[in-house]
């Protein structure tokens, strides 16, 4: 966490400015202690459940060091691409501890995941029929769409009736026919309603829908209730009360297991809940520009490095960590991309000077992962603060990285040389 002591900010006990001095900016910094705290908090919230499996949704942040941290805590892994499966295996996860939950991928990708021995989560009837015909002995999980509208933004609400995700709850009778006809073993049922869920009652409504469907599948080993738990982006902001949810859902799940006749495993796939608050994006102020209407703090980054404010209208708290003790002024914090890339409007910051370092909070999830080379800019470095020490866990890109994979057409290359001559 970002903490202020004697006018100096620290992350995980390490001076934040010293990290920039050592590794430069812009840079993503992650505090492993915060990740561990969030994981253990979730474990504690569901302690009444006998079989609990937390699968880290690694699309939030796939750096191998992050994956290894969660593996060491006892986590499984939720993956959405064959590349994430590969990363999970490289990080040392047992294939059985990896759940593959893709959307709209080819049969070939599903078969490749199956060949690696990971668990499969199928979210459409077409692939269920094709895969079940070819591999009826491979157990699968079925992703159900409960038609519950949840999530803080339309782009991250995935459980409603118009969503591309999952098999409609109303199509369960069709699924049962396919399963019976092909002799498929359904080992799990899954749902995920969306991100930024803070209302436990809405979540429990979706749970009841999945439990009703589960009664029709006699060979289940686990139920996966997704995640999407909200974290607070502002001081006093709304967040999922995970302890309240754990109490209500834990009791209901245990009751269902009693009715079902055996102890099932309760699964979740948190991503943002585990890593969002652990991350900070540190940027350097290039210019302070005063216009007739605003004062802009223009920084050495943009939507190419942190697109969430522009994509999701997400809020990231911004702190001037270079000038903690000074008077406050109002700034619009903007980037250097040739589109409007505003990180924050009308933010009250300690007076900003050119060269000051600004820290953007809640940058652990879906931040570096969405970074790009737009405007032909390099992607930033990543650092993890672990056990009181800052470790470089991804190098900053350079021109070689930008050119890697490009192949020259010989005639165009020759013509370029001729023009230069």
TrEMBL record:
Keyword Lyase included in the entry's annotation: yes
Pathway: Amino-acid biosynthesis; L-lysine biosynthesis via DAP pathway; L-lysine from DL-2,6-diaminopimelate: step 1/1
Binding locations of pyridoxal 5'-phosphate: 228, 366
Keyword Plastid appears in the UniProt entry: no
Classification via Gene3D superfamilies: Alanine racemase, Lyase, Ornithine Decarboxylase, Chain A, domain 1
InterPro entries referenced in this protein's UniProt entry, alphabetically: Ala_racemase/Decarboxylase_C, DAP_deCOOHase_LysA, De-COase2_C, De-COase2_N, Orn/DAP/Arg_de-COase, PLP-binding_barrel
Residue positions binding substrate: 308, 312, 339, 366
Source organism, top-level taxon: Bacteria
Record-level Gene Ontology MF annotations: diaminopimelate decarboxylase activity
Cofactor(s) in the UniProt record: pyridoxal 5'-phosphate
Coiled coil spans: none
EC number: 4.1.1.20
Alphabetized CDD domains for the sequence: PLPDE_III_DapDC
Modified positions (N6-(pyridoxal phosphate)lysine) in chain numbering: 59
Enzyme class name: lyase
Role of this protein: Specifically catalyzes the decarboxylation of meso-diaminopimelate (meso-DAP) to L-lysine.
Complex formation: Homodimer.
Family, as annotated: Belongs to the Orn/Lys/Arg decarboxylase class-II family. LysA subfamily.
Protein name per Swiss-Prot or TrEMBL: Diaminopimelate decarboxylase
Encoding gene, per UniProt annotation: lysA
């Amino acid at each position: 966490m970002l903490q202020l002591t004697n006018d100096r900010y620290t992350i995980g006990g390490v001076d934040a400015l010293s990290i920039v001095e050592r590794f430069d900016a812009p840079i993503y910094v992650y505090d492993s202690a915060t990740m561990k705290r969030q994981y253990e908090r979730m474990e504690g919230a569901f302690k009444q459940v006998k079989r609990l499996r937390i699968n880290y949704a690694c699309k939030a942040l796939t750096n191998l060091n992050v994956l290894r941290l969660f593996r060491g805590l006892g986590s499984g892994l939720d993956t959405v691409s064959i590349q994430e499966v590969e990363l999970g295996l490289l990080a040392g996860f047992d294939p059985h501890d990896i759940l593959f939950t893709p959307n709209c991928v080819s049969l070939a990708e599903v078969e490749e995941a199956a060949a690696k021995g990971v668990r499969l989560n199928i979210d459409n009837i077409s692939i269920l029929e094709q895969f079940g015909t070819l591999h009826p002995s491979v157990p699968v999980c079925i992703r159900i769409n409960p038609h519950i509208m949840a999530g803080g933004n339309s782009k991250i609400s995935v459980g409603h009736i118009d969503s591309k995700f999952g098999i409609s709850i109303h199509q369960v009778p069709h699924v049962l026919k396919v399963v019976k006809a092909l002799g498929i073993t359904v080992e799990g049922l899954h749902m995920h309603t969306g991100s930024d869920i803070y209302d436990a009652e809405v979540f429990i409504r979706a749970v009841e829908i999945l439990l009703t469907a589960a009664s029709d599948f006699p060979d289940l080993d686990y139920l996966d209730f997704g995640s999407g738990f909200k974290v607070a982006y502002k001081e006093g902001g709304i967040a999922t009360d995970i302890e309240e949810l754990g109490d209500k859902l834990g009791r209901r799940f245990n009751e269902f297991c009693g009715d079902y006749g055996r102890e099932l495993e309760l699964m979740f796939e948190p991503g943002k809940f585990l890593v969002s608050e652990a991350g900070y994006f540190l940027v350097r102020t290039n210019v302070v520009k005063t216009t007739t209407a605003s004062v802009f703090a223009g920084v050495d980054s943009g939507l190419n490095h942190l697109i969430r404010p522009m994509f999701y209208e997400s809020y990231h708290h911004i702190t001037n960590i270079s000038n903690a003790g000074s008077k406050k002024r109002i700034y619009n914090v903007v980037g250097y991309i040739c589109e409007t890339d505003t990180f924050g409007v009308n933010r009250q910051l300690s007076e900003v000077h050119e060269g000051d370092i600004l820290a953007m909070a809640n940058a652990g999830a879906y931040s570096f992962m969405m970074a790009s080379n737009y405007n032909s800019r390099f992607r930033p470095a990543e650092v993890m603060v672990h056990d009181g020490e800052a470790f470089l866990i991804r190098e900053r890109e350079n021109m070689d990285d930008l050119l890697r994979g490009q192949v020259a057409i010989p005639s165009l290359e020759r013509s370029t040389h001729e023009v230069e001559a």
